[in-house]
Structure formats: C-alpha cells, structure tokens
Amino acid sequence: MKKIIVFTFIVICSTFSLYGQNEKPKDNKINLENISLSGLTFRSIGPAVTGGRIVDIAVNPKNNSEYYVASGHGNLWKTTNRGITFLPTFDNQNSYSIGAVTLDPQNPNVVWVATGENNAQSNVIPGDGVYKSENAGKTWKNMGLKETEQLGEVIVHPNNSNIIWVAAYGSHRTSGGQRGVFRTKDGGKTWDRVLYISDNTGC
C-alpha cells in the first residue's frame, strides 16, 4: 500500500512538471505589427562628415615601412613602422581636406599633396591647391592651383621630377574655375591646362 502511494505521488508530480514545461511564458513585448508606423517618414541625419575617409595611399618604394595615408576628412598621416603608429604631417596648412598624395619616383622624400577631396557631395571640404614637401613631410609649400578646390590625382613623371600632372575636379557647387588636367614642366612653378572640356566638367 505504501509503495502504491509513493508511485501515485511520483506520477502526479511528473504530470505537473510536464505541464509546467509545456506552458509558454507570457510575452510582454510590444508587437510592432499592431502599431501603425505608416505615418512616419525616415531620413538620414548624419554624420555628414564621416571621419576616417581614406582617399589615397603612397608607399615609399625604397622603404615599405614608410607610407602616407591621405584622409578626405582631414590631414595627411605618415607611418614609418608599417602602420603601427601614425603621425599627422599636414596640421599647419590652410587646407586639411586631402584629395591625393604621391611620391616622386626619383626621390621619395619629395611628397606632392592635392588638397580638396574629389567627391561630388554636399559635405566635401574644398582645398587650396597643390602642396609640395622636399623633406618627407616636415615642411610644405603651396605650389598653386588654388582655385581648383577639389583635386583627384597627382602624377609625377617617372624619369623627370619637374613634370607633374594634376587632375582638377573644380568646385561642385558652381561652374567655371580651374578644371581639367594641369601640367607643370618646372616642378610646380608654373602650370598649363592641357585638357579642358567645359566649365561644368571636372577631372
């Protein structure tokens, strides 16, 4: 009789245990399907100027531990230890938006920087022309083309350091200005526009 009572008790407890396991917990979460969202409109609110936009990289062909990283949002960064640390090299210049960076193939201590990111959008910051450093980014000199505003490329002739080409987008807000491809044959002292299409067409 005692065994029957114990067995009956175990069966009853097991039944309640199984019932408790099968019972689903109450969901207190709000069901968004029951809420009308049709009256809401969404739009992007930023960030407008996205930090860390990398637009160009120039590696020293004689020392691959050293390279320059150009940021459209700000500054030219240099590493001498393969990217473990970076230092800004363009802090004291009139423009901090960079469009391109390149090194002279004959002398990698000569660095050319084109300012003004080459990107047709409302948050682009205009530059003030082309800069040149002859001591690996320690000091800089503005070499002209200040009205280009946005530059996308700088190419140094592989065998003649005095010949440089610059691709100028120009302003995306207004027509005219300095647009097209510019070339110097005297290391940046003077520039000639060698390709031009129209006042509304950049390069």
Tell me what you see in this structure.
By secondary structure, the protein is mainly beta. The protein has a domain at 54-195: 7 Propeller (Methylamine Dehydrogenase, Chain H), CATH 2.130.10.10. Helices cover 10% and strands 27% of the residues. It is built from 1 helix and 12 strands, in the order H-E-E-E-E-E-E-E-E-E-E-E-E. It has one helix spanning 2-22; strands spanning 54-59, 67-71, 76-79, 87-88, 98-103, 111-115, 130-133, 141-142, 151-156, 164-168, 180-184, 192-195. The strands form 3 sheets. The chain has a 4-stranded antiparallel beta sheet, with no helix packed on it. Strand 1 and strand 2 form a beta hairpin. The longest helix is centred in the first third of the chain and has 21 residues, at 2-22. The chain is flat, with a radius of gyration of 32 Å. The termini are far apart. 29% of the residues are buried. The model is unreliable at 6-11 and 15-20 (pLDDT under 50).
Order of helices and strands: HEEEEEEEEEEEE
- What share of residues are in beta strands? 25-35%
Number of strands: 12
**Oligomeric organization of the protein chains:** single chain
Q: Label the overall shape.
A: flat
Under CATH, the homologous superfamily of the domain at 54-195 reads YVTN repeat-like/Quinoprotein amine dehydrogenase
| Unreliable parts | 6-11, 15-20
Task: Give the integer mean of the pLDDT values.
Answer: 82
Strand order of the largest sheet: 1-2-3-4
Report the radius of gyration as a whole number of Å: 32 Å
